[in-house]
Amino acid sequence: MRPFRVVVAGRPNVGKSAIFNRLIRRRQSLVHDLPGVTRDLIEADGRLSDGRRFRVVDTGGYEPEGREDIPRAVREKALGAIREADLVLLVIDASAGILPADRGFAAVVRQAGAPVAVVANKIDRKEGREGEVEAWNLGFNEVYGVSAEHGEGFDDLLDAIGARMPKVSEDDREETGDEQDEDPRREIAVAIVGRPNVGKSSLSNALLGRERSIVAAVAGTTRDSVDAYLHHGGRDFRLVDTAGIRRKGKTERGPEVLSVVQARKRIEDCDLALLIVDAAEGPTAQDATVASYVHDAGKGLVLVANKWDLAGGEAAAQQLQETLAEKVPFARHAPVLRVSAKTGRGVSKILAVAAQVAENRRRRVSTGELNRVLGRSLRDSPPRTAGGRRLRVYYVAQTGTAPPTFTIVANREERLHFSEERRIENLIRGTADFSGSPLRLSVRSRSREEAKERRSSRK
């Protein structure tokens, strides 16, 4: 069943994103004092106290006079979302009163024909209470005064949303409970990351089959991390189109700084990342930096060489592989896909590979299998520590997943030399398919109880 859609809309800088974050109960949409921070449509699930879920859509500020490409695209996307809404929350800044832009937008929403509730934000201010009363002059049947900053008034607003939603049975209610969130197969969250202007939004749109994110030949067009949902190959995916991650010296103050912070945070919330590289330019040091963020967060990684229609043939493919191995060492385990978001070439393979990487990241290998493969190698050539000493390895066990984590039990607890980490990681990758997933290694000494049991078994 299509989820109940609540669209948060209004002119710029009235607090739409703050209201969106309150409704989904987490900080996802960027909030900043400057108008125009939100550009794309941002979606996430809200939830009522009885377990019913609804989809919340945050829109960019509606500017009827904006003639440039980006304001016009923001306006068109907001109108498209309003036409598909089950309920529009028309947000005004109550502390500023009703402005001509509010009246103009109210007329646009009324013409679209969707049900509307007016949300008078910022009633925590003295002027806000007066503005809440004035909001009734817009001519709609419902006005809710709220303070997105302090959370005031949201119980009534959620009740109004719930009153419009279908009722659910006890069985349906159980299926919407917390236990579903713990099912790792329910959804694969995929962050689309990379430096600015490599085609992240174009690729997101190509995967979705529709223009969801705003695409422009201006670096930094995407500011928010934009979520979109689709079903492919029997799996549910959530695509997160993030802002381009720049070097600190290249990032402007204000909303763009927040965008980069948000992009890194969203990487941590996902299962894996698609690192988009400009195939025509080739990988750069900045691509390696972005890959390191994904690796450090323990997430899966797929390298996507976009704009392959501009790059060339097999010779270029070989050159790409060699350059990636040299400049992006964090990605040596990652699949490499050559695609063109513009022509559609190779795009159909991406989600299948992403699903496989997500599965690899949660893969387990038995202790017996690990030691069958690693045992002789680690006995014949004991690993060296960072201090140069040799370790006596008793056994290796997998102690975690997402990412796969392995513990080497030895006679001393000491960090491995980086070359030995690489060697053991390669041995582990020989036991099962871990492509696309980072591995974590640690060393611990055998406990007294383990040593005692080992001596008893010998007797």
Gap from first CA to last CA:
65 Å
- Class from secondary-structure proportions: alpha/beta
Largest sheet: 6 strands, mixed
Number of helices: 15
Low-confidence stretches: 30-39, 173-184, 212-224, 248-256
List how many beta strands DSSP finds. 15
In angstroms, what is the radius of gyration? 26 Å
Note the run of SSEs as H and E: EHEEHEHEHEHHHEHEEHEHEHEHHEEHEH
Strand content: 15-25%
Shape: elongated
- Give the overall pLDDT as a whole number: 82
Helix content: 25-40%
Strand order of the largest sheet: 2-3-1-4-5-6
What does this structure look like?
The protein is α/β, with parallel strands linked by helices and 459 residues long. Helices cover 36% and strands 20% of the residues. It contains 15 helices and 15 strands. The strands form three sheets. Strands 2-3-1-4-5-6 form a six-stranded mixed beta sheet, with helices on both faces. Strand 5, helix 4 (126-134) and strand 6 form a beta-alpha-beta unit. The longest helix is centred in the N-terminal third of the chain and has 15 residues, at 69-83. The protein starts with a strand and ends with a helix. Mean pLDDT is 82; it is low at 30-39, 173-184, 212-224 and 248-256.
